[in-house]
Amino acid sequence: ETGVTQTPRHLVMGMTNKKSLKCEQHLGHNAMYWYKQSAKKPLELMFVYNFKEQTENNSVPSRFSPECPNSSHLFLHLHTLQPEDSALYLCASSPGTGGEYTEAFFGQGTRLTVV
Amino acid sequence: GQNIDQPTEMTATEGAIVQINCTYQTSGFNGLFWYQQHAGEAPTFLSYNVLDGLEEKGRFSSFLSRSKGYSYLLLKELQMKDSASYLCAVSDSNYQLIWGAGTKLIIKP
Known about the structure:
The complex is a heterodimer of chains A (115) and B (109). Helix content of chain A is 0%, strand content 56%. Chain A has strands at residues 4-7, 10-13, 18-25, 31-37, 44-50, 53-57, 64-70, 73-79, 87-94, 105-106, 110-114. In chain A, strands 2, 4, 5, 6, 9, 10 and 11 form a seven-stranded mixed sheet that branches. In chain A, strand 5 and strand 6 (53-57) form a beta hairpin. Chain A is globular. Chain B has 109 residues and is mainly beta. Chain B has strands at residues 3-5, 9-13, 18-25, 32-37, 44-49, 53-57, 60-65, 70-75, 84-91, 97-99, 103-108. In chain B, 0% of the residues lie in helices and 57% in strands. Classes of the chains: A mainly beta (115), B mainly beta (109). The interface between A and B is medium-sized, with 21 and 24 residues.
């Protein structure tokens, strides 16, 4: 089993739908991240959780709502999205968030299409 | 602002050598990462440089010059499976990763 698992791999949703993305890590890491990857653009950090506490929210619209019930699981709740929100959403984890070299391990992502 | 620049796309021939450059302007520096991402897959870690110089790891090497804000990833003896996007990322003063848009590498037989 891979270290970081994301479900679903693909999602098509209407602008009025509500859906959730799930991420699970089996690496014993303390930090988890949501990234947005749009075509030909840098990875955009959305949210950071460290020891289940949100430590970063990079001005993400409220239609994206993260949830971290424990250090192994991370959710991204979606509602009333816009077509420009269509992208690859990547989850990552790392041992910690600062003070040392922190390599991030990524899940395979959820390809989201908003119609 | 903070910025990472790398070429959008490069083409190379199987068996050859290719160098992918990355320049950065960031608030602080706590290391530079290279990741590989095959289409439809997760980015995977390749290398980490925090001191100037060359780090070699098999067919892949990564170089860093902090004074120039410059790094490169060198891939030798290219194989078709090396076709992927290569992402450069810098850890800034807050240990937050600042990412480049990635370089798509196309390998031709």
